[in-house]
Amino acid sequence: MVNLKKNLFFGMRDPEVERLQFFLQQVGFFPAGETTTFFGRITLRAVVAYQKAKGIEPAVGFVGPLTRAAMAGGQPAPSAAATFTRSLYLGVRGDDVTLLQQKLQALGFFPAAQAPTGFFGNLTVEAVRQFQCAKGIVCEGDFASTGYGVAGPKTLQRIGN
Questions:
Q1: In this structure, what CATH number is given to the domain that contains residue 41?
Q2: Rounded to whole angstroms, how far apart are CA atoms 47 and 63?
Q3: pLDDT digits (tens, 9 = 90+) for 55-103
Q4: Distance between CA atoms of residues 120 and 118, nearest Å
Q5: Which of 29, 70, 99, 161 has its CB surrounded by the most CB atoms within 10 Å?
């Protein structure tokens, strides 16, 4: 068991990443003797494998509250318990953006190879637009006039608020 204090994700460099890697070694998902403070491709693959083994969905390699709870020996909270409390748009950061990215990834709209970052950038805008169009919410315009590319109440409700 390991008690990680913060969310960990691809590309990050932090002492917590080494603790994560050591834990993953102990449970058989990470190569022996390879720990570093960098969350790279090997760590990403190991986290995804661990998440799949534990039934944590979506298994995207982001070490957030569900994965941290499982690694600490507890049961991950049901993902349905998480909700959105604000509209999300270009430039916004936060755990709610990470949750949005995870849900879009699980639905096939956010790139599978991209670990959720918690930053609402161009990839997230495009994923939201694809989702909105596929679900008949809005397919054209801009964020100011139609909300195209903004995860507002209607979009978030359809994603699973």
A1: 1.10.101
A2: 7
A3: 887 788 888 888 888 898 865 444 444 567 888 999 888 888 888 988 8
A4: 7
A5: 99
Listing DSSP states for 72-99 in one string gives: TTSPPPPGGG----S-B-TT-BSHHHHH
Same domain, 126 and 142: yes
| Total structural domains within the chain | 2
The answer to whether residue 96 is domain-embedded is yes
pTM over 0.70: no
Q: List the structure tokens of 91.
A: 């430039």
Positive or negative CA dihedral for 144, 145, 148, 151? Answer: positive
The owner of tokens 């909700």 is 83
Residue with token string 């209607």: 154
